[in-house]
From TrEMBL, chain A:
Coiled-coil blocks: none
Top EC group: transferase
Pfam families named in the record: Alg6_Alg8
The keyword Glycosyltransferase belongs to this UniProt entry's keyword annotation: yes
Name the UniProt record assigns to this protein: Alpha-1,3-glucosyltransferase
Record EC number: 2.4.1.-
The entry's keywords: Endoplasmic reticulum, Glycosyltransferase, Membrane, Transferase, Transmembrane, Transmembrane helix
Gene Ontology CC, one term: endoplasmic reticulum membrane
Membrane topology: Multi-pass membrane protein
Membrane-crossing segments per the record: 9-30, 100-118, 139-155, 185-211, 231-256, 332-352, 358-377, 425-446, 458-478, 484-505
UniProtKB/TrEMBL annotation, chain B:
Function in brief: Dolichyl pyrophosphate Man9GlcNAc2 alpha-1,3-glucosyltransferase that operates in the biosynthetic pathway of dolichol-linked oligosaccharides, the glycan precursors employed in protein asparagine (N)-glycosylation. The assembly of dolichol-linked oligosaccharides begins on the cytosolic side of the endoplasmic reticulum membrane and finishes in its lumen. The sequential addition of sugars to dolichol pyrophosphate produces dolichol-linked oligosaccharides containing fourteen sugars, including two GlcNAcs, nine mannoses and three glucoses.
Class of the enzyme per the UniProt entry, highest EC level: transferase
The entry's keywords: Endoplasmic reticulum, Glycosyltransferase, Membrane, Signal, Transferase, Transmembrane, Transmembrane helix
Membrane topology: Multi-pass membrane protein
Enzyme Commission code(s) on record: 2.4.1.-
Underlying gene: Alg6
Pathway: Protein modification; protein glycosylation
The name this protein goes by in its record: Alpha-1,3-glucosyltransferase
Molecular-function GO term, any one: dolichyl pyrophosphate Man9GlcNAc2 alpha-1,3-glucosyltransferase activity
Catalytic activity: an alpha-D-Man-(1->2)-alpha-D-Man-(1->2)-alpha-D-Man-(1->3)-[alpha-D-Man-(1->2)-alpha-D-Man-(1->3)-[alpha-D-Man-(1->2)-alpha-D-Man-(1->6)]-alpha-D-Man-(1->6)]-beta-D-Man-(1->4)-beta-D-GlcNAc-(1->4)-alpha-D-GlcNAc-diphospho-di-trans,poly-cis-dolichol + a di-trans,poly-cis-dolichyl beta-D-glucosyl phosphate = an alpha-D-Glc-(1->3)-alpha-D-Man-(1->2)-alpha-D-Man-(1->2)-alpha-D-Man-(1->3)-[alpha-D-Man-(1->2)-alpha-D-Man-(1->3)-[alpha-D-Man-(1->2)-alpha-D-Man-(1->6)]-alpha-D-Man-(1->6)]-beta-D-Man-(1->4)-beta-D-GlcNAc-(1->4)-alpha-D-GlcNAc-diphospho-di-trans,poly-cis-dolichol + a di-trans,poly-cis-dolichyl phosphate + H(+)
GO cellular component: endoplasmic reticulum membrane
UniProt similarity note: Belongs to the ALG6/ALG8 glucosyltransferase family.
Regions crossing the membrane: 110-133, 145-167, 173-197, 227-249, 335-352, 359-386, 398-419, 447-469, 481-504
Signal peptide region: 1-22
Length: 523, 515
């Protein structure tokens, strides 16, 4: 809505506006992640480096890579001026007003990096499409889609996490790669990986893209790889950067001989296949299928009711989920599935290089594939696909359609994160705000092309409304609430899983069939 | 983008901000024995639900009028009754007679906040949307939604309604009345205004412009023909709506007299002392002329209450007169809106028993002219929000204040680029400035702009000081008083400005039309 004449006035207005909104959300509900981060502040502030990954007074042990721990260490030195009590390890669940204020503000302030990254991303997008109206400029739309992203707002500023500046790092590295500043991009991504290792999901895209466009300096005329253009210097530089960053981060623990301990904290495979609330991915569908088959089997007497483990009927509430009909899934199986799912996109990036656009597509596909098949995936991980896809959505109508499906279902699947009644209107209003904006802006951006969504997709998305009404308003009033409290979560995650799977497949098909239709058969 | 989706986005944003503010504290939260306006509203629900209508305004063993007795007109009471009915369905404890006194809980807060939210959504917001669509300058489709966004994000109203706790119904109804008048539906308009008046007697601040505008319209149509018919119809409408609202009390005269006594307790003092909320000291510092003068002379000690009443009445009347006469002689919609501002402002500055929240009655018409004089309107709205600061601090609403006020400024800067609209013409002072001083007015825009920035920084500094510093021991009211005096000076200047705009207005316009 900013119409400030000329220049970047509108960008400042958008960034300021969303920051004010974030400040308004300070008194809102926060999840246990708040205590997690408070505990990490305390650990890094009080204990020597050698104790960081051993300390276990609180159940929320440090399970992010060392850079994040250092980040908390730095924060803790500001925190002591707000309330020193929050830095005591034994003060479990400590939440004075100053603590809340400090933690919330730290998220808001570190988001400046995200704002800067969005600014850089907007510069990468070519604003050739001459729009007389500022509101229809692709860069403006992109800025809103990223800065006002619903998922990021509720996960960071209500639920409480530090995704903002992490995504800032990621978008900044993407922007640098788009600007052909490869080394900077690689450095940023390496640093990012040592902040939060979930970004390893998209590492294949980075690796292949850097190898293909930076280590090989030239292509043949038909676009295929020119093997002789391999540059040793570039590989060495890349390797040096990665090794240096890793040494800086993990080196101290290597010296202390604590690397196995750090790794066991970072990759806790002891947790279940699915998070307490099933992330809407392939395994949610798999679990639901298993449950449906179990019920069917019990009805038709194929199964013996006494042999079924009790816990399986409360799925969605306990972490360990026993499959009764279908085979149980091991971490290795999910790893293989993820690998297979990522493979075609990586091949695509290698054999059909399309510059930054191809890279972004591959990045989104990697993120989505890992989300679909990963072990113990959080529903929040969907942001890893939605945010980069925003960059694609303003460039092509096809991607815009996929973006709308993915963003709407993905954001809807975040609803169970906020289950407290006072936050119910906030999440619905914010979701409506973002959805209405994304639909109307993308529609007007591509108004000369065919409709972004077909009728089936439209119906699917519209049905989210009755689903929400049923889950949040009608269901709590019914007597089932006491016996089957997990039904709303189950419905939400299965229904959203359908949409996300569909978006994933559609994006895959569109990427694979692009330009060289033969390759699709090879798949 | 289509204008409807833009408008939807503006409204959704405004709603989000409202709900986010409502997560915060409210008036009198956890402050026994009197609590605050939140408890007053809850108490009225309790009273209206449990007592027969004849006892609502009377002091009885079940209805202690000293504890938040009803002092608003019947529509407020009916509204409380409806809310109480819903409350009873959810949790009977919330409105149980006697035992529910001072009831506070998270679910109850949620319920109360929802009632305000719903009232806002049903009455105030639709009126704003329709008003913005009805503006003449909607040729650029964005204009309507930016206008709506600015009006809906006005921090004063959000903070008082959704933070401090109050229902936006009377203002919403008044807005509906203005809307109807601007569509020439005079009868509907006067009915809406009667309803507003019967929701809160403070709407009397707006009554004179309504009266003068409609009267002027009748004169214009000729008092012997159509005008008389219109006048009769209007009078009929007003009588019928009043009668409808007061019907249950119309049984005997004593009832009506008692309600009136409750509505206008003229023995309270020149500027509303907060009799209830803080028993120890500190009469509320209202940003009107009497309170500011009391820095110099203690009026209370010099003049008797009766003389005070007469004095304030005389001054108010004098300050109202020019705008009202002008409006009656030359009724125009634009003049009507400006008259609403200046009359309400006169009342606020000079009249008897003013509450600081009454500034909202001035802000509402200022919101309506934000597209005509964006610079002055924004300035005024910011000052009016600032004048509420002591109240907001008491309610622990500092955070929403510190967020929404700059946000509002940012939105206005972005959508109207107000800093570039400071020329005499933009301020509608062209006619006035033509009187001669051309050379002086060359640097006028720059002077105005620097004055604006100066006043902004003054307000900012005072806000920070009153939020951060404990007041010196000998002067516990230093900061609230400073806030009141500073805002009062601003308001005086604004009063002069608005009167100039009104009085020098249409001559110039007429000339333009001829040329």
């Amino acid at each position: 809505r900013a119409m400030a004449a000329g220049g970047r006035g509108w960008f400042r207005a958008l960034a300021l506006g969303v920051s004010f909104l974030k400040c308004l959300l300070i008194p809102a509900y926060y999840s246990t992640d708040f205590e997690v981060h408070r505990n990490w502040l305390a650990i890094t502030h009080n204990l020597p480096l050698s104790q960081w990954y051993y300390e276990a007074t609180s159940e929320w042990t440090l399970d992010y890579p060392p850079f994040f721990a250092w980040f908390e260490y730095v924060l803790s030195h500001i925190a002591k001026y707000f309330d020193p009590q929050m830095l005591v390890v034994e003060n479990l669940n400590y939440a004075s007003r100053a603590t809340i204020f400090f933690q919330r503000l730290s998220v808001i302030f570190t988001d400046t990096l995200f704002i800067y990254a969005v600014h850089e991303c907007c510069r990468c997008v070519n604003g050739k499409r001459a729009a007389k109206d500022i509101l229809e400029k692709p860069t403006f739309i992109l800025a809103v889609l990223l800065l006002w992203n619903f998922g990021l707002l509720i996960v960071d500023h209500i639920h409480f996490q530090y995704n903002g500046f992490l995504f800032g790092l990621m978008l900044l590295s993407v922007a640098r790669l788009c600007q052909k500043r490869y080394l900077e991009g690689a450095l940023l991504f390496a640093v990012l990986l040592h902040f939060k290792h979930i970004y390893v999901y998209v590492a294949p895209a980075y690796g292949i893209y850097l190898l293909r466009s930076y280590c090989f300096t030239a292509n043949n005329a038909d676009g295929s790889l020119k093997w002789r253009s391999f540059s040793v210097l570039h590989v060495t530089l890349l390797g040096l950067i990665v090794c240096l960053v890793s040494a800086l981060s993990l080196g101290p623990f290597l010296v202390l001989g604590q690397l196995p301990q750090v790794m066991s904290r970072l990759f806790p495979f002891k947790r279940g296949l699915c998070h307490a609330y099933w992330a809407p991915n392939f395994w949610a569908l798999y679990n639901a299928m298993d449950k449906a088959l179990t019920i069917l089997g019990l009805k038709c007497n194929f199964l013996d009711g006494t042999k079924i483990p009790k816990a399986s009927m409360t799925g969605g509430l306990v972490q360990e989920f026993q499959h009764t009909v279908l085979p149980s899934v091991t971490p290795l199986a999910t790893l293989i599935c993820t690998f297979i799912a990522i493979l075609p996109s990586v091949f695509c990036l290698w054999f059909k290089p399309q510059g930054p656009r191809g890279f972004l597509q591959c990045l989104v596909l990697c993120a989505l594939s890992s989300f679909m098949f990963g072990w113990h995936v959080h529903e929040k991980a969907i942001l890893l696909a939605i945010l980069p896809l925003s960059l694609l959505s303003i460039q092509r109508a096809k991607d815009a359609g996929i973006y709308l499906i993915l963003a709407t279902t993905g954001h809807f699947s975040l609803f169970p994160l906020l289950f407290t009644t006072p936050e119910l209107p906030i999440k619905i209003l914010l979701m409506l705000l973002f959805t209405v904006y994304s639909f109307s802006s993308l529609k007007s951006l591509f108004r000369r092309e065919k409709p972004l969504l077909n009728w089936l997709e439209t119906i699917y998305l519209i049905l989210l409304v009755p689903l929400e009404i049923f889950c949040e308003i009608i269901f709590p009033l019914t007597p089932w609430k006491r016996h089957f409290p997990f039904v709303p979560l189950l419905l939400t995650s299965v229904y959203c899983a359908l949409g996300i799977t569909y978006a994933w497949l559609k994006l895959y098909v569109s990427v694979l069939t692009e330009r060289i239709p033969v390759r699709q058969k090879a798949e | 983008m289509e204008k409807w989706s833009l408008m939807t986005i503006a409204v959704l944003l405004a709603l989000t901000v409202r709900w986010a503010v409502s997560l915060g504290s409210y008036s009198g939260a956890g402050k026994p024995p009197m609590y605050g306006d939140y408890e007053a509203q809850r108490h009225w629900q309790e009273i209206t639900y449990n007592l027969p209508i004849r006892q609502w305004y009377f002091n009885t063993s079940d209805n202690n009028l000293l504890y938040w007795g009803l002092d608003y007109p019947p529509l407020t009471a009916y509204h409380s009754f409806v809310c109480a009915y819903i409350a009873k369905l959810i949790n009977p404890d919330w409105v149980a007679l006697h035992t529910s006194r001072g009831y506070e809980s998270q679910p109850h807060k949620l319920f109360m906040r929802t009632t305000v939210f719903v009232a806002d959504l049903l009455v105030y917001i639709p009126a704003v949307i329709l008003y913005c669509f009805s503006l003449k300058e909607t040729s650029a489709k964005k204009k309507a939604s930016t206008c709506a966004l600015c009006i809906l994000l006005y921090p004063g109203l959000i903070l008082i309604d959704h933070g401090h706790f109050q229902y936006p119904l009377s203002l919403g109804l008044a807005l509906w009345a203005v809307l109807c008048l601007s569509h020439d539906w005079d009868l509907l308009g006067s009915m809406a205004f009667c309803l507003a008046l019967n929701y809160k007697q403070m709407e009397l601040y707006h009554s004179l412009p309504f009266f003068c505008y409609l009267l002027g319209k009748c004169f214009k149509k000729g008092l012997k023909g159509k005008g008389l018919v219109l006048l009769a119809k209007l009078a009929g409408t007003v009588l019928v709506s009043f009668a409808a609202c007061w019907l249950p009390f119309g049984t005997d005269v004593e009832q009506i007299m008692q309600v009136l006594r409750r509505l206008f307790p003229i023995d309270r003092g020149l500027f509303e002392a907060c009799m209830f909320s803080s028993p120890t000291h500190c009469p509320d510092k209202v940003a009107n002329i009497w309170c500011s003068l009391s820095v110099l002379i203690k009026i209370k000690n010099v003049i008797s209450p009766r003389t005070q009443l007469k004095l304030s009445f005389a001054v108010t009347f004098l300050s109202l007169l020019p705008a009202c006469i002008k409006l009656t002689v030359q009724p125009s919609l634009r003049g009507f809106k400006f008259a609403l501002v200046s009359c309400a402002l006169s009342f606020f500055l000079f009249s008897f028993q003013v509450h600081e929240k009454s500034i909202l009655l001035v802000s509402l018409p200022v919101c309506l002219i934000i597209n005509e004089i964006p610079f002055m309107a924004t300035w005024f709205l910011l000052v009016s929000t600032f004048s509420l600061l002591p109240l907001l601090l008491k309610d622990e609403l500092l955070l929403p204040y510190a967020v929404t006020a700059p946000a509002f400024l940012a939105v206005c800067l972005a959508s109207f680029s107000i800093l570039e609209k400071t020329s005499a013409e933009d301020l509608q002072l062209k006619a006035f400035s033509l009187k001669g001083y051309m050379s002086w007015f060359k640097s006028f825009p720059r002077i105005v702009r620097s004055l604006f920035l100066l006043s902004l920084s003054l307000m900012g500094v005072l806000s920070v000081l009153s939020a951060a510093l404990p007041p010196p021991q000998r002067l516990p009211d230093l900061f609230p008083l400073a806030v009141a005096v500073v805002s009062c000076l601003h308001f005086l200047l604004f009063l002069v400005y608005f009167n100039i705009v009104i009085l020098w207005d249409s001559k110039n316009r007429g000339q333009k039309k001829i040329s």
